[in-house]
Write a structure and sequence with these properties.
- With 188 residues, the chain is α+β, with helices and mostly antiparallel strands.
- The chain has seven helices and five strands.
- It is globular, with a radius of gyration of 22 Å.
- Strand 2 and strand 3 (60-72) form a beta hairpin.
- Helices cover 38% and strands 20% of the residues.
- The protein binds coenzyme A.
């Protein structure tokens, strides 16, 4: 019998196992740095940063979906961001992935979300066909971007170089004052 339920902290090891299996499938087995401790801290405290759903077949974990909420400023509605979905190889093609997506769709509808969004690798045709069979489509013209690691730290450290030009125009204010205003807004 198929049962789908929200993951609890007891499921952390199996959630991490599924995360690793998906990274392996996606040809980046070394990419998973997350530990059980990370998942416990970020998913099962007072302010969870993510949710996970486990599918069990006859009490055996066979699949997982991992998601969190985002927000559409255009629609004025929250949305679900699906980070990971995976079904164990031997259990694929039996409707379990669809059951997990239906579970998320029901949450999205109940919470008045604008929709569910995710990324898929361009070579992962089986998953793309799976998603299309559910009625999903690509977001044309949009490409995913990110900044991380040293580039992120560099950006955080950057001194604001727009200021010299601004200073030249606003002659009454000295450069240091404007820099201060941008760097550390003061409470009135
Ligand atoms: C993609 C994945 C989650 C789909 O789960 P699944 O349990 O195998 O899919 P289901 O059996 O629920 O299929 C649901 C529907 O999708 C269709 N479908 C599934 N796999 C398909 C494929 N390879 N090609 C075409 N259609 C497919 C099924 O025909 C079915 O359609 P139907 O409802 O009209 O019969 C699963 O195959 C998987 O874990 N793949 C490896 C990991 C992965 O790629 N994850 C997604 C990362 S973005």
């Amino acid at each position: 019998m198929l049962r789908i339920r929200k993951a609890t902290s007891k499921d952390i090891p199996i959630v991490l196992l599924f995360i690793r299996q998906l990274a392996e499938y996606e040809r980046e087995p070394q990419a998973v740095l997350a530990t059980e401790k990370d998942l416990r801290r970020d998913g099962f405290g007072r302010d969870p940063k993510f949710r996970a759903v486990i599918a069990k077949w006859n009490n055996e974990p066979v699949g997982m979906a991992f998601y969190f909420y985002n927000y559409s400023t255009w629609k004025g509605r929250p949305g679900i961001y699906l980070e990971d979905i995976i079904i164990r190889r031997e259990f694929r093609g039996r409707g379990i992935g669809k059951a997990l997506m239906r579970y998320l769709a029901r949450i999205a509808v109940a919470r008045k979300c604008y929709g569910i969004r995710w990324e898929v690798l361009d070579w992962n045709k089986p998953a793309i066909d799976f998603y299309k069979s559910l009625g999903a489509g690509f977001r044309d013209h949009w490409r995913a971007m990110q900044i991380q690691g040293e580039d992120l730290r560099q950006l955080a450290r950057t001194r604001l170089l727009l200021l010299p030009a601004l200073c030249r125009r606003e002659s009454g204010l000295d450069r240091g004052l404007i820099a201060h205003r941008f760097d550390a807004p003061q409470r009135r």
